[in-house]
Amino acid sequence: MSYFMVDIEADGPIPGNYSMISFGAVLVDKDLNKTFYGRLKPISDQFDPKALAVSGFSREETMQFDDPAKVMLDFKYWLNKYSFTSSPMFISDNNGFDWMFINWYFHHFLGNNPFGFSSTNLGSLYKGMVKDTKQNFKHLRRTRHSHHPVDDAKGNAEALLFMIDEMGLKITL
């Protein structure tokens, strides 16, 4: 199974009413050099200025971003290129948030989601490994968390690789 670490930035709390502004993905392997970055033009007039500010972009900048349907199609092709076995596996730091945007955008613009119906939460995986729901994996990142979605996905993938290599998590990459 091919694992893809995904991170998104949005201008509000839910898809449809608000927009996914950008997202990044990295194929989880030893190199972490297969990445995807998409910047999407807003799909709604609604936006929360505080949420948008996290992305580092202004509303005017986002209005010049790419057509969401094209970005999602390009992402689907990229996933297909690096899905070496069965369906790709979606994993993220906050899959409740990241998954709902990616899933909604895939279904809205392409009619299906290559990830299927499942996702994995990196934080929950770590909590289970250390048997403590108050623990956090974020100290395992090497790449600085910058709110650039490729950087953030890469840092999370580094944490997952540490969990595999140093903590004994059994995942075949």
UniProtKB/TrEMBL annotation:
GO terms for molecular function: nucleic acid binding. It comes from the Bacteria. This is DNA polymerase III epsilon subunit-like protein. The lineage of its organism: Bacteria, Pseudomonadati, Bacteroidota, Chitinophagia, Chitinophagales. Pfam families: Rv2179c-like. SUPFAM superfamilies: Ribonuclease H-like (SSF53098). InterPro entries: RNaseH-like_sf, RNaseH_sf, Rv2179c-like. Gene3D superfamilies: Ribonuclease H-like superfamily/Ribonuclease H (3.30.420.10). Residues 3-160 form the 3'-5' exoribonuclease Rv2179c-like domain. It comes from Chitinophaga skermanii.
